[in-house]
Amino acid sequence: MNRVEFSKMKYKELFQQEMNYEIGDDPELMEILQKFIFGEVFQTGNISDRERELITIVLLTMQQTLPQLKAHTNASLNIGVTPLEIREAVYQCAPFIGFPKVLNAVATINEVFKERGNLLPLESAKTITEEDRFQEGFDIQFPIYGDEIKNKMATLPEGLNEALPRFLTEMCFGDFYTRKALDIKTRELLVLCGLVAINANPQIQQHGAGNLKVGNSKETLISAILHCLPYIGFPYAINAVNVIKDLEEVG
Length: 251
Description:
InterPro entries: 4CMD/NDH-1_regulator, AhpD-like, CMD-like. It is built from 14 helices and no strands.
């Protein structure tokens, strides 16, 4: 199957309609876009279509491209991604882009959920209490990342030197990584792709190494970055691949 045939098949599978790049005001751009994304990128690498759509949800949230987020929320649901998984992928962006942008994305995905008859709010995915959020977050964070941030912040003024590491443990890992619907391997892969979308190179290196520790292979990481390419452009994708290819394999 050539890329044109594959793109038509994949587009119909995702969006439940025939591909037609002749409509609209810019048919030539849509032809280039659709053949490349659905005909080439979707055939490259070892990640599943469900993973691809969750990655796309994260990229569009990070970039605040909300019309496309709405379209890919529908596409995700069409191929069996659950509303809870989509919501968790969006929520997981909060530690990296802040809450206002995530609220915008949540409003967009909720619009799709309502249109498709899903009752809101969705079921709770919370697994922690106020009392154990630090410990539960620490239990996830430490085996992957150790005390790196705590050690780097140790020279800050008294009282501030513990604030950022504690916030990271409690909020990023406690409030989000502990939630149901997505496992740690998936969360780490989505976080890496989100960081690629904002070209956060030091964190790409850290979370690339973290991904290897939780069981994602270099092939998977590079496959995921190549899926990011149409949404972020070549410079950010090449930067990220260069970081990942130089990481030492675990074990």
